[in-house]
């Protein structure tokens, strides 16, 4: 905690310094001119430099630049504006004091300086400075905590929309996006398609290779399906267990069948051995497709039910195939 005395008179500087030191203020720095004070405060630096100075005692009448103008410049500096300034003046003319307060001075002391008055004013200014510092530290801490909270919330909302195993969207996220895409399609009268994918004989896969391998297989299938999707609005999500769902906005049934077939083939190309499957030597999927132009008379659940029914038909007509829902 340092106090800076700015005074062109050497006698005054020595006197005030001694008085302060006698009252236990051990770190007292002096400057002969306003410019020397600016140097000490680092005012010529482009960025804020940390200063030890907690209080400035500023003489008013000085050559080159008077104490009031110096006070105004220090207060205009965003790095230094919280340092209290007490002006030391030979006159207590109202006009001088008014100018000093307008320039940002906190208090004044008249010359000749009286020891008790100096001590009282310095103590009260330092107390205020301490409180300002405490408040600023609390504010900085609060800003930091808020930033951390915002980051954590962002991460939480990202995680809450992802499936823990496969890393693709989860069912909750699918439902949000589907609802949004449905309303958009109904509003604009555009087409929307939905695919339901289900691994064939996956129970046998787990029984043969174990649950861990089963989990790895689900990850590969999710990644393969995701790679097929090219448009920014397309979304693949894990609907649950070994079932996946794909949303294809602004896509006709014919387009959706193409995507479904591309996904089915991409999963075949992964060539994940499935020795217990009655339909192929590798992992395969069945896909149900529903879609078309959305009107306000339709319900969002209609497409889901139709895609699910088409999936059921794909299963019952031999698996490892794509089936389109009847309207
Ligand atoms: P289908 O061709 O008729 O779909 O037969 P399926 O064996 O795939 O269908 P079923 O519904 O009988 O079995 C689904 C299996 O998927 C059973 C379940 O243990 C497995 N499964 C579901 N979720 C997970 C998972 O997160 N990890 C693993 N490893 N297996 C899962
Ligand atoms: Mg299955």
How does this structure look, described?
It is a single chain. The chain is an alpha/beta fold and 327 residues long. The chain folds into two domains: 2-140, Rossmann fold (3-Layer(aba) Sandwich); 171-324, Reverse transcriptase/Diguanylate cyclase domain (Alpha-Beta Plaits, 2-Layer Sandwich), CATH 3.30.70. It has helices at 10-22, 34-41, 67-75, 94-102, 115-159, 171-188, 202-209, 211-228, 253-270, 300-316; strands at 2-6, 28-31, 53-59, 85-89, 107-110, 191-199, 235-240, 243-249, 285-293, 322-324. The strands form two sheets. It has a five-stranded parallel β-sheet with strand order 2-1-3-4-5, with helices on both faces. Strands 7-8-6-9-10 form a five-stranded mixed β-sheet, with helices on both faces. Helix 7 (202-209) crosses helix 8. The longest helix has 45 residues, at 115-159. The protein binds 3'-deoxy-guanosine-5'-triphosphate (GH3) and magnesium ion. The site of magnesium ion has 4 residues, from strand 6. It comes from Sporomusa sphaeroides DSM 2875. InterPro entries: CheY-like_superfamily, Diguanylate_Cyclase, GGDEF_dom, Nucleotide_cyclase, Rev_trsase/Diguanyl_cyclase, Sig_transdc_resp-reg_receiver. Residues 2-126 form the Response regulatory domain. This is Phytochrome-like protein cph2. The modification 4-aspartylphosphate is found at residue 59.
């Amino acid at each position: 905690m340092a106090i800076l005395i700015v005074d062109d008179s050497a006698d005054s500087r020595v006197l005030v310094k001694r008085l302060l030191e006698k009252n236990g203020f051990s770190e007292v720095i002096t400057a002969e001119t306003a410019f020397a004070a600016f140097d000490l405060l680092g005012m010529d630096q482009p960025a804020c430099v940390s200063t030890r100075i907690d209080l400035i005692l500023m003489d008013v009448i000085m050559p080159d630049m008077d104490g009031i103008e110096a006070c105004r410049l220090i207060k205009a500096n965003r790095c230094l504006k919280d340092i209290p300034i007490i002006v030391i003046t030979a006159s207590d003319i109202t006009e001088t004091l008014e100018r000093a307060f307008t320039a940002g001075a906190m208090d004044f002391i008249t010359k000749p300086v009286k020891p008790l008055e100096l001590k009282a004013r310095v103590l009260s200014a330092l107390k205020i400075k301490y409180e300002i510092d405490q408040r600023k530290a609390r504010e900085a801490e609060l800003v930091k905590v808020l930033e951390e909270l915002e980051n954590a919330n962002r991460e939480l909302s990202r995680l809450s929309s992802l499936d823990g195993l496969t890393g693709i969207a989860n069912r909750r996220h699918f439902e949000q996006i589907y609802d949004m895409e449905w309303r958009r399609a109904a509003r604009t009268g555009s087409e929307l398609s939905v695919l339901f994918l289900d691994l064939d004989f996956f129970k046998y896969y787990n029984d043969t290779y174990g649950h861990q391998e089963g989990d790895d297989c689900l990850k590969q299938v999710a990644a393969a399906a995701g790679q097929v999707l090219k448009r920014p609005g397309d979304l693949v999500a894990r609907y649950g267990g070994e079932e996946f769902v794909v949303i294809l906005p602004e896509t006709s049934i014919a387009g959706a069948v193409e995507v479904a077939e591309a996904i089915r083939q991409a999963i075949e190309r992964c060539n994940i051995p499935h020795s217990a499957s009655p339909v192929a030597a590798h992992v395969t999927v069945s896909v149900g497709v529903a879609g078309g132009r959305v009107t306000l008379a339709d319900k969002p659940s209609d497409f889901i039910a139709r895609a699910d029914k088409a999936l059921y038909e794909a299963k019952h007509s031999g698996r490892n195939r794509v089936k389109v829902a009847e309207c």
